[in-house]
PAR1 protein
Amino acid sequence: MAAFLSKLPLVLFLSSLFLHAALAELVCEDLPKSVCAFSVASSGKRCLLETLVAGDGSVKYQCRSSEVLVQKISEYIETDQCVQACGVDRNMIGISSDALLEPQVTAKLCSPACYNECANIIDLYFNLAAGEGVFLPNLCDSLRSNPHRAMSELLSSGNAAGPIPAAYPPATTASAPSA
């Protein structure tokens, strides 16, 4: 009993730290690099890993809050299981829809282990795909039925206008029979 009483102050101190951590808000800027990417702060803003060049020229990593507000998710650090299932990288700097152009990444995102179990990552890539004019559920359905066609549709989904100036008449070409 005396041994327990001598350790009681230490137990109470450690308990108070855990209680403080449980009541504290999740702030992106306080997160370590190892869990920054794919986390969501208490404010509902996504966390992004960014680089910071110090005065001596060295590069350091810093977790920052983005301006992207996530609906229905807050105070969330993505699990290692979802990071692995979805084929994403916690060391990714910033966030880009370019990953959707990689067939391996898109296949992992659309896999049942990711798509059905990792709502945070799917929400992020759903919004990135939408920014490119692509509806992620349709892309995933296409990948399951015809992976090559799905990737060509994704590559041709850009919203940018062609380089032909309006002053020139459209070129006439013979139309090929449709497949």
Observations:
- The first helix runs from residue 2 to 23.
- The chain is about 45% helix and 10% strand.
